[in-house]
From TrEMBL:
One of its GO terms (cellular component) is cytosol. Residues 307-344 are annotated as: Disordered. Residues 307-320, 328-343 have a biased composition (Low complexity). InterPro entries: SAM-dependent_MTases_sf, TrmA_MeTrfase, U5_MeTrfase_fam. The keyword S-adenosyl-L-methionine applies. The active site is at residue 384. It comes from Emiliania huxleyi. One of its GO terms (biological process) is methylation. This is tRNA (Uracil-5-)-methyltransferase. Pfam families: tRNA_U5-meth_tr. Transmembrane segments: none annotated.
């Protein structure tokens, strides 16, 4: 722990303007800026805007721990340093705000808990589950476990853990279980693991899942229309950057099979748990690097396209895609005949490229992934960086093959300049 200067104790930071009375105005400015940025790309396309709650909308909060004038405080980073002391954090959930002063008092009064403490992370849920992580910059005190157990009992904490370099002490568990209620009546449960990504705004996540499910229904309706009203076989979904199965679990009911690709093994394990706990039997998780997977699949699709152009029937998929992809097997699929989930998905696809869902990092999609995406009839693209999305659409060439037919803005990051957005793209030949 260290004091930093200059010190502010008013809770204000340069990267967030928490002014609930002006929230609607701030959101309007952000959405106007996005519409202006996209210009003709969204001409004639309805852009649905999903606002955040004005306060207490985050189930996750992370603070530095510093001493200001000798007093231990939660601190927010500003300009790359923990400069701003806070006693509360009104964008975080009520449960986190109620716990903050009690936890701070307990930690500050304990030498075993406060020595070397550099950060405190809260991970909560809409249903009251809570995990607190205490992060240390030096070896944890020899009495840490006993002190932590006592504090956990005193504060009635569901779960608590401590981390230092090379050390991780877990009291009870390192995850929380969240429940999302969707408009279609389903209640889905998700395991969210400490240290791995999960959506910080549960209410906004529910809105995103509802939008994705509605998009899937529209895709099915469009396929039925093209089939002359006859009910076509359900589409296949390929999902890249699938995380803990957040989208996979909700969308699986709308597809005959889903292949979800994720590189983080902890997230893959959480996704398997989430699929099984929600009774999803038609989705498979593949632990693989997305870039390597895309290149492998591209080779097969390119070969099939060349064979089709030459008037030959495309050969069925090979036994495996190659590379270093390592399939993980959900409990619900343990008895499946094929050991390789990628092979099962490709065999079922038989050259079909129905729907792909991508939720990339802020940098957007790379060239190989963009080329893979262009093979699919329908593209669901979730973006935490509208500028990267626009670049992928324009310079990346997606608008040459696809048209935006649906769009949405999700204000996950209220009071900041950031927006999350989504588009549904349809192959242009299907729009005629």
């Amino acid at each position: 722990m260290a004091a930093t200067a200059p010190i502010r104790c008013d809770g204000k930071v340069t990267w967030m303007a928490f002014e609930p009375e002006s929230y609607e105005h701030q959101l309007q400015e952000k959405t106007s800026a996005m519409r202006s940025l996209f210009g003709a790309v969204l001409a004639g396309v309805e852009v649905q805007v999903f606002p955040s709650m004005p306060a207490h909308f985050r189930q996750r909060a992370r603070f530095a721990m510093c001493r200001f004038d000798g007093v231990l405080k939660f601190a927010l980073f500003d300009k790359d340093a923990p400069r701003v002391a806070v006693d509360r954090f009104p964008v975080a959930s009520r449960e986190i705000n109620e716990l903050m002063p009690r936890l701070l008092a307990a930690v500050a009064s304990s030498e075993a808990l406060s020595t070397g403490l550099e950060a405190c992370h809260f991970l909560g849920t809409q249903t009251g589950d809570m995990l607190v992580s205490l992060i240390y910059g030096e070896p944890m005190h020899s009495d840490w476990r006993a002190a932590a157990e006592a504090m956990r009992a005193e504060l009635s904490l569901p779960a608590l853990l401590g981390r230092a370099k090379g050390t991780r002490v877990v009291l009870d568990r390192d995850s929380v279980d969240e429940t999302y209620a969707l408009h279609d009546g389903r209640r889905l449960t998700y395991r969210q693991v400490e240290g791995s990504f999960s959506n910080p705004s549960a209410a906004m996540c529910e809105k995103t899942l509802d939008w994705l499910c509605e998009s899937a229904r529209l895709i099915a309706a469009e396929r039925a229309r093209r089939g002359g009203g006859a009910a076509p076989a359900q589409s296949l979904l390929l999902e890249l950057y699938s995380g803990n199965g957040n989208h996979t679990v909700a969308l699986a009911t709308h597809f005959s099979h889903v292949l979800a690709v994720e590189i983080d093994r902890r997230l893959c394990a959480a996704a398997e748990h989430n699929l099984a706990s929600n009774g999803v039997r038609n989705a498979t998780v593949l632990a693989a690097d997305s870039g390597r997977f895309c290149r492998s699949l591209l080779r097969k699709l390119d070969r099939g396209a060349k064979e089709a152009a030459a008037g030959r029937t495309a050969a069925p998929p090979d036994a495996a895609l190659g590379g270093r992809e390592e399939p993980t097997q959900p409990a619900a699929e343990a008895a499946a005949p094929s050991a390789n989930p990628t092979t099962r998905w490709l065999e079922e696809a038989r050259g079909r490229t129905d729907v792909i869902l991508v939720d990339p990092p802020r940098c957007g999609l790379d060239a190989d992934t963009l080329r893979l995406v262009s093979y699919f009839d329908h593209v669901l693209y979730i973006s935490c960086n509208p500028e990267a999305l626009l670049d992928n659409l324009q310079r990346g060439g997606l608008l040459q093959t696809h048209a935006v037919v649906r769009s949405a803005i999700f204000d996950h990051f209220a009071y900041t300049p950031h927006l999350e957005c989504a588009v549904l793209l349809r192959r242009r030949t299907l729009c005629e």
